[in-house]
Amino acid sequence: MSSTSEPGPLQLVVGDEEFLAERAVSDLVRRARQRDPETELRRFRTSEVAPGELAGHLSPSLFAEGRVIVLTHGQDANKDMTAAIADYVKDPADGIVLVVQHAGGAKGKAVLDLMRKAGAHTVTCNRITRADERSDFVRDEVRRHGGTITPGALAVLVEAVGSDLRELAAAAGQLVADTGGAVEEAGVRRYHRGRAESSGFAVADAAVAGDRRAAME
Question: Which of 3, 10, 53, 210 has a CA between 20 and 30 Å from the CA of residue 182?
Answer without folding.
Answer: 3
